[in-house]
Amino acid sequence: MCYNSYPKTGSWKEDKDCCSWDGVECDNATRHVIGLDLSCSWLNGSIHSNSSLFLLRHLRSLNLAGNFFNYSLIPSEFGNFKTLTHLNLSFSYFSGKIPYEISQLSSLVSLDLSYNWLVIKTPVWKRVVDNLTLLRELLLDNTNMSSIRPNSLMNLSSSLTTLSLHYCDLRGKLENNILCLPSIQTLDLGFNFNLEGSLPNSNCNSSSYLKFLDLSGIRFSGELPDSISSLKSLKHLNLYSCNFTGSIPTSLGSLTQITHLILYFNNFTGPIPISLRNLTQITYLDLGFNSFRGLLPLSLLNLPNLSTLYLDHNQHVGPLPSHVSGLNLITLYLSSNFLNGTLPSWLFSLPSLETLSLGDNEFIGEIGEFKYNSLYHLDLGYNKLQGSIPKSISRLVNLTYLSLSSNKFSTMLEFEMFSKLKNLQYLDFSHNLLSIKNVTFTLPNLRQLNLSSSNISEFPIFLKTATNLTSLDLSNNRIYGQVPRWLGDVGRDTLRSLDLSHNFLTSIDKIPWKNLQFVDLRANLLRGPFPTLNFLNLQYFFVSNNSFTGEIPSLICNASSLEVLDLSHNSLSGMIPKCLANFSALLVLDLRMNNLSGTIPTTFAKGNNFRNINLNGNQLEGQLPRSLANCGNLEVLDLGNNKINGTFPYWLESFLKLRVLVLRSNRFEGQIGNPKTKFPFPNLRIIDISNNQFNGSLPRKYFKCLKAMTNVDESEVRLKYVGDRYYQDSLNVMIKGSYMELVRIQTVFFTTIDFSNNRFIGEMPKILGRLKSLKGLNFSHNNLTGYIPSSFGNLTNLEWLDLSFNKLSGEIPMQLVELTWLEVLDLSHNQLTGRIPLGKQFNTFDNDSYMENSGLCGFPLSRTCNNETKQPTPSILQKEDNLEHENGFGWQAVLIGYGCGVIFGTLMGYLMFKFGKPKWIVRMVILEQHIMLRKLKNNAYRRGGRK
């Protein structure tokens, strides 16, 4: 706002004529003050009602913009300026309601109250509309107009040439004749995200005057109408994030006066029309974040005045042209497409180019030689570039951002070539197989350094001078030994993020940085007690998969801003600090696989934000604290492999978001009983209560209500998985006979029930056949009796079924042959009889699946069946086994997936596993996910200052 501010009143002297004062204009005849311009004059405080300002009754123009009035109210005395024609109070830190008296200034031609903290109510707005009939300019940007009906805009002065209501929280339906205000030249209704409507399909004569149109963020629908081409005088058009679909109309190319065209973040498809080559006056073109396809339109690169071009995040394919001429580009964004081929030399020979973003494409070959030093921002990451990095990169002395990450560079990288880049703030060479020559030089302005997965074996020496560093990522390398003490001086007061995970570090004396928010030391060789650490500002703390010993330090109670705490897979002992249950911001508490003892804290506060609590694999005892009922946002609760006792925690059934419940291998006992709520565990997809002492019948009414385990329409539901940017949940689960830790589940749906190794009796409920998304079902090692329900034939996604070590009788239902995904079947140690079904997956099971069932016969057993016994044929489910149809169960299927969407995340390790046939593969690859993380973390930075 203020490019040349200074205290104008500082030059005012009482012994001089006030008409000569800076900012004062007087009438030549009467010497009355008629104009006062104190904009950007360092004024502060509030304007009192008795201010001498209000004595200037002859004022025609008053400009107080760009000052600091301390969020005070606009005095009603402004209504005394009856002759005022121009009033500008913008950017002046006023707040509250716009006074009614402003609407009495009937001589106003220009009114600018924008970018304050003001509210205009309906009575005042109606008076503005009715009384200020001479208005030509009305600017109320950033004013709360949520109570104003959009259709009232059409009643404004017919003389209005400028109407700017940017970010005013206008709500409702926008009239489609809004472009027909008779004299309008500038119309800005952008960033009113609760407005909806449609652009007019017909032309109106007045629209030919329109030069500036900003409708960004309004919820339109359908295609951009051809009528937009009637705005022949248009110079600026902003339709950012307007929900438009379909193709850009070719008639848009007839707007030959346009200089700024912004269509990014819509749903446009198809090729970019060739008619845009007619926009010869255009300087700024943004078509990014759409779904444009096809070859890159070469005609856009030939527009003579184009300086800024965004085509990023589309689906363009093919190579860049080998030759272009006459380009005056300053900014070029082509990132996140499917462009391929080599990088043409002209890219590195544009004398005015300041920003070049080609990341996340499929370019190959080497980087060309840089001829000019104009670049400030260079992003070539996430491609397939190889060879050596040209030494001419040292010419780019203005460079502030450099990313060459995730390519195939494999040569010796001499950091010394960057020694001249003194303005460099962001440097990313991650995910390359470089050999780095460690040399000393200075990068005094370096803020972020990412050398993750870069094959380095020691800390870069040049870091010693990076005193202003805010982010350091050296993860996934071969750094061995102790963290050098000098590292503590790197960004001592500025470092916010430190990632040294997945190395071979053996010790770190202390973590001295004062303002750390993110610390990741996962998967090293660290041992002994926790290093000294300032927890005050910490939000994310990861030290899993090390060998830390001793108690969790009491200083962690200072970390009241913690969102994720992962201390899993260490050798920590002692009790869980009670304060951890009181943190209001904590989303994830992962303390699994330690030697913690005592009881679970009983002080979980109301209104907490826990999404994941994982205490698996400790020595915890006692009963579950009822204060856990305050964790209503829980999605994952894993308390397996402890010594917890008590009865089934039915009071968890009301948790609407709970997806994973693991109580296995504890000392729970008693009957599960019936639900206490109408719809218990509505989102539960994994339940494991195995290896306890539960008894009684299986909980049929609970099974009846598990709606997230019912049938899923996989064609209509987007895949979900656990975790986000920094953390992803893992789960210890019995899969097909093997106890495994799943770190992330991707490309599959994962739903299991494991009630094994308890004391359940009675029959298996037929209602289980409704749970069609089940992958695994384990009732083994109980005292179940009766038949195997033929309704199990409906579990068409089932991959493992274990009913062994029970007292089941009768024949194996022929309907189970239809379980074509079944890979592991264990019916051993029961009292089953009759012929074993044949066909499909049943032809792959061996003797172990049926052993110790004296009445079974047929393949694969050596015991043949009586000749009179006929082989049953598959048929419809037996009528007596038809599922009960009871009121209260009409759920539509929903995909929940094993996931909780906790925190924004990075996966540091994938566990690959596969069993039997058909193959079901869960891919878990460290490098691939690490690359995915970098794309997320760098995306906003790459985008630069785009608005």
Structural description of this entry:
- Among the domains are: 1-144, Ribonuclease Inhibitor (Leucine-rich repeat, LRR (right-handed beta-alpha superhelix), Alpha-Beta Horseshoe); 635-866, Ribonuclease Inhibitor (Leucine-rich repeat, LRR (right-handed beta-alpha superhelix)), CATH 3.80.10.10.
- It has a 33-stranded mixed sheet, with no helix packed on it.
- Helix content is 3%, strand content 24%.
- The chain has 947 residues and is mainly β.
Quick summary:
By secondary structure, this protein is mostly beta strands. Helices cover 3% and strands 24% of the residues.
Name the features:
globular, Leucine-rich repeat, LRR (right-handed beta-alpha superhelix), 33-stranded mixed sheet, 3 helices, mainly beta, 13-stranded parallel sheet, 24% strand
Produce the secondary structure layout.
Blueprint lengths: L23 E3 L6 E5 L23 E3 L22 E3 L6 E3 L12 E3 L4 E3 L2 H10 L5 E3 L22 E3 L6 E4 L11 E3 L5 E4 L14 E3 L21 E3 L6 E2 L13 E3 L4 E4 L13 E3 L4 E5 L12 E3 L4 E4 L12 E3 L4 E5 L12 E3 L4 E4 L11 E3 L4 E2 L15 E3 L8 E3 L11 E3 L6 E3 L10 E3 L20 E3 L6 E3 L14 E3 L4 E4 L2 E2 L6 E3 L6 E2 L3 E2 L6 E3 L4 E5 L12 E3 L4 E4 L13 E3 L4 E5 L12 E3 L4 E5 L12 E3 L4 E4 L13 E3 L4 E5 L14 E3 L4 E5 L2 H5 L26 E5 L2 E5 L9 E3 L4 E4 L13 E3 L4 E4 L13 E3 L4 E4 L13 E3 L4 E5 L19 E3 L68 H17 L5
Family: Belongs to the RLP family.
Subcellular location: Cell membrane
Keywords: Cell membrane, Glycoprotein, Leucine-rich repeat, Membrane, Receptor, Repeat, Signal, Transmembrane, Transmembrane helix
